[in-house]
Amino acid sequence: MAVSCTLSSAARCSLLLIAALTLVLSHGAHAYGGSRAGLSSSFYDNSCPDTRDIVKRVIQDARVTDARIPASLIRLHFHDCFVNGCDGSLLLDDDVYLGIVSEKKAPGNNQSARGFKVVDNIKRALEKACPGIVSCADILTLAAEISVELAGGPSWSVPLGRRDGTKTNIKSADDLPSPFDPLDILLEKFKNMGLDDTDLVALQGAHTFGRTQCQFTQQECTVGQDERTLVNLDAATPNVFDNKYYGNLLRGRAPLLSDQVMMSDPRAAATTAPIVRRFSSSQKDFFKNFAASMIKMGNISPLTGRDGEIRKNCRRVNKKPY
Fold first, then answer.
1. CB 132 within 8 A of CB 312
2. Is residue 319 classed exposed, middle or buried when 0-12, 13-18 and 19+ CB atoms within 10 A define those classes?
3. Is residue 27 annotated as part of the catalytic site, yes or no?
4. pTM score, two decimals?
5. How far apart are CA 212 and CA 232, in angstroms?
6. How remote is the C-alpha of 277 from its chain's centroid?
7. Most-buried pick from 18, 245, 298, 308 (CB within 10 A)?
């Protein structure tokens, strides 16, 4: 935007310059991490002060009967942020009336992404306590942090204030990081999200707990075995968030190819391998970087202010009457 000035209109010009600068800054706020000014860890302190306690209570209850839930919830946050940014779009179901095709059908999510009923329970509890206040996008972000903490991992102050998207992006969802991706593709996909090599190695460390289907592993399934048979991502401590995952990589024992390539790929020596060794030798270093990378990922293109909405039901946008 060009602004011309004359001496006789100095005051008016000053106002125009300020307006132009404000417009530029508002456009820049949509870049990765750029809208952090709209997020704050104290966002719900007045409007819904018990938000974190409510989310934590529901997850704790779910863990009693399903030890996989913490790992499943962090995966939902990851797959949400990598498509359209952290806007809760992954949670939307199909809606023919509104032309919404669910991202749950994408190869990276279909019959493997789970934990949606727990998110529903969290949303129901929050709507009872604070109707129309807490977004589904923030639920995913908080649930990821709480899940890591409950499993023995680090805790961090979560920036909040995201709003929910009203559309999905199935094309982008089809291109989520895959368990079969080589290192160069993984590095590129993370770079496209504004994440660097350290972020890749740290965030992949979420595979230190949880399980995967044998069809996604390097060894694949044994003869006659159902392809959905579950395999521990970390055989030693499958339900604990620790740094043993990186020791598995050093020994060549990672079940997922997309994990092992961070050591085995020829490009790894100059990119990911030194970071894997660092995190293997220091759990404190891993925890610190994991928390920082989670905050960074959580800042990918969030909707704030008047953008988006606060869904009443995480599976549906508000505009359609039910």
1. yes
2. exposed
3. no
4. 0.86
5. 7
6. 25
7. 298
